[in-house]
Amino acid sequence: MIQIGIPELLIIILVFFVAAKPEKISKYLRDLMKSFIKIRSTFDNAKEDLEREFNYQELKQEVFNEKKMKEFDKEDE
Length: 77
What we know:
Elements: H1 6-19, H2 25-53, H3 56-76
C-alpha cells in the first residue's frame, strides 16, 4: 500500500498547481472538492453499514457490561 504523508501530499499539490494553467486551477479545485466529498460520503455510508451489520452498539454495550460485572466481582472479594 502506498503511504503518503501530509508533507508529500502538499508537495504533490504544489507541483500540480505550478504545472497547471491558471485558468483551470479553480475547476481543478472544484473537482477535487467534489471528489473528496463523494469519497467521504462513501466511507461514512460504509461505516454505518458495518456498524449496523455487526450490531456495533450492542457489542459495545455488552463489553461495557462485562467490565462492570468484573469490577463488582472484584469489590465483593
